[in-house]
Predict the 3D structure of the following.
Amino acid sequence: MTRNPSRAGAVLAFAFALLAPAAARGQEDGSRISEATQACLFCHENLHPGLVADWRLSRHARTTMAEALAVDEPARRVSTPGVPEELRDVVVGCAECHTHAPDTHPDTVEHGEARVHPVVTPRDCALCHPREVDEYGQNLMAHAYENLLGNDLFSDLADRINGVESWTDGALAPRTPHAATTDDSCLACHGTDVQVVRRETRDTGLGEMEFPVLTGWPNVGVGRVNPDGSRGSCSACHTRHEFSIAMARKPYTCAQCHKGPDVPAFKVWEVSKHGNIYAARGEGWDFEAVPWRPGRHFSAPTCATCHISRLVNDWDMTLAERTHRMNDRLDTRLFGLPYAHPHPKDPRTSTIRNRAGMPLPTELTGEPVATALIGADERAARRNAMQAVCLSCHSRSWIGGHFDRLDHSIATTNESTRTATAILLDAWRQGVATGPANGGSPFDETLERMWVDHWLMYANSTRFASAMMGADYGVFADGRYALAANLRRMQTLVRLDGGRR
Ligand code: HEC
Ligand code: HEC
Ligand code: HEC
Ligand code: HEC
Ligand code: HEC
Ligand code: HEC
Ligand code: HEC
Ligand code: HEC
């Protein structure tokens, strides 16, 4: 191991001199913490007491891989069959995550005795949790950065929202947004592009140390592009440094990104019967247990229950498999682009092209781009997978009735979007608004914004309300009431020839 010939090196030598007697004193679980991690703790316990306290609360801090691997299914929490010998009998500490495979991390710096990278990526977690990492990579979330900015149409939408327009010659004129705005806006959830720009040396109070300077940092967006080329941030749902399963199973974790008017899953769930029961009874439920048993550990579903969790009954029969590929139970993409459609085959959606050459999974007239989307058999299998969850608490007829209503809502909201699109296409043809065929953005004029509201806010809200049982968001709160009113307003605007500005 090379030593950093700086002041930090000297401070570190001092730190290790102090550390040796501490280890000899035999701190309670000192022998289970690797020497490398003990060195980190020596400084960080006092530098970042909050951070280290979270780690101490985690299962990582109190479980060795040997112990984790000794647990049989269905209670096991690690998916690797084994790990290198040196990792077997130590708990998972700072060094085990932040110094793993340093050469694959462009953000690695000499940090005293060790080579540390601040951006711990899914590839590091894969050492012990390969199944979760592999599945997560097949999820729309892992590709949320490219799905947005790698798609000309969506990145135009982002620019039109984020770029502050100027008043020039008596008209609004577009301006390109600053990268910091996009990082703080869309990419807060979708994930930023984290790259190493340079390195800088700072005086830390413990001597000078070198640190990487990163773009798009900090960020825990689901599709974050990491310096090592991997995608995503596991801490989007498992906040560091507790990495708790209980936190991920609670709905507030998802609310961070699934709450706005375009994607109101959390609000819908909150006003549903399931959300009511959680509010009234949730405190007494067991969110730590693996396996998770409906009826025994909880009595109404959270987001995780329906979309992710493994559910097991008292005979240890699996009722639903756990999945980090969170589309295993989704047959329809409710999120209209601009129409709801069968789920995409590949989570990288920016490569899809419709007949008109636009990067959309549906035509503007509503037909799905069948070649890019899953077929009838796969749709049926996924719907069954979702219904298997419901079956742990409901009868078939209750569930069947629910999904019939959902299918109906999907059809009628698509119909409403078709009407709104017909108005817009007419406006483009008549020159009341300037569409792509005439070199205009489809997202900048008033009538076009109303059309975006139609599918992005109101049709989505209505479908989410129907799928996740929160009727309020399907009617007066951005639901059918808004859909009906918006069509009328669009008609008025076209007739007034006022759609242009
Ligand atoms: C000699 C004391 C010392 C030791 C030992 C030490 N660190 Fe640090 N570490 C620091 C200081 C000081 C900082 C800077 C804190 C700040 O920015 O305020 C830091 C920062 C960090 C950062 C953030 C870097 C960034 O760019 O944001 C990480 C990650 C980190 N340390 C991990 C570790 C790990 C893992 C170990 C053990 C392998 C370790 N440290 C050992 C003192 C130490
Ligand atoms: C969108 C939210 C979300 C993201 C992102 C996420 N997870 Fe999870 N994870 C969950 C939920 C929810 C559970 C609980 C599953 C259950 O109840 O069976 C979970 C459970 C786990 C478990 C416990 C498995 C067990 O057997 O007890 C591990 C390990 C895990 N996740 C690792 C990861 C890794 C690694 C990543 C990054 C690649 C990741 N997760 C990203 C939501 C997420
Ligand atoms: C299970 C893996 C894991 C372990 C164990 C771990 N870290 Fe981290 N650490 C992460 C992840 C993940 C991030 C956040 C990066 C991201 O967003 O993906 C992080 C971030 C950090 C940061 C930057 C956070 C900030 O808010 O500035 C520091 C500093 C840090 N870790 C130090 C430590 C120290 C000290 C320990 C030991 C007590 C430790 N880590 C243990 C995975 C780990
Ligand atoms: C060196 C192996 C190792 C690495 C690397 C690792 N973990 Fe773990 N993980 C474990 C062990 C051991 C447990 C505890 C298993 C047990 O308690 O049976 C665990 C448990 C978990 C759990 C379940 C916690 C709970 O409350 O049930 C989650 C979530 C998790 N890890 C996420 C991550 C994430 C995210 C990363 C990467 C940032 C990561 N782990 C990196 C070994 C590892
Ligand atoms: C608060 C978090 C959050 C922010 C901020 C955010 N989004 Fe999203 N976005 C989501 C979620 C959640 C989904 C997935 C919704 C679903 O499928 O139910 C999504 C999906 C999308 C999709 C669909 C992509 C595809 O092909 O799968 C587009 C397009 C999109 N968002 C555009 C934007 C734009 C443009 C911005 C910024 C102006 C933005 N989003 C900001 C959370 C966010
Ligand atoms: C940091 C933001 C963030 C958090 C936290 C988050 N999501 Fe997401 N989620 C997104 C974005 C963004 C997308 C859409 C990506 C796209 O379309 O490209 C998405 C997509 C999804 C999808 C569609 C996946 C697919 O492949 O079809 C599901 C299901 C989902 N999220 C469920 C959850 C659940 C459940 C939780 C909580 C356990 C959660 N999400 C937490 C941002 C987030
Ligand atoms: C009772 C089960 C249930 C609960 C609880 C639940 N969902 Fe859903 N969710 C569904 C169903 C059913 C669908 C539609 C599935 C389909 O038709 O493909 C869906 C669809 C979704 C989608 C996909 C949207 C798209 O664009 O296709 C996301 C994202 C989502 N839910 C997030 C959440 C979040 C976040 C929570 C918690 C706040 C949650 N769900 C709670 C059952 C549930
Ligand atoms: C862990 C148990 C559990 C699971 C899993 C579950 N539910 Fe429920 N659900 C309940 C309970 C309890 C109620 C409240 C019944 C009442 O109103 O008395 C309920 C209520 C409902 C309602 C009535 C809503 C209303 O306001 O009228 C519908 C519809 C429903 N569930 C559908 C589903 C569907 C569909 C799924 C699967 C996608 C599902 N549930 C999964 C426990 C569950």
The chain has two domains: 7-140+189-236, 264-495.
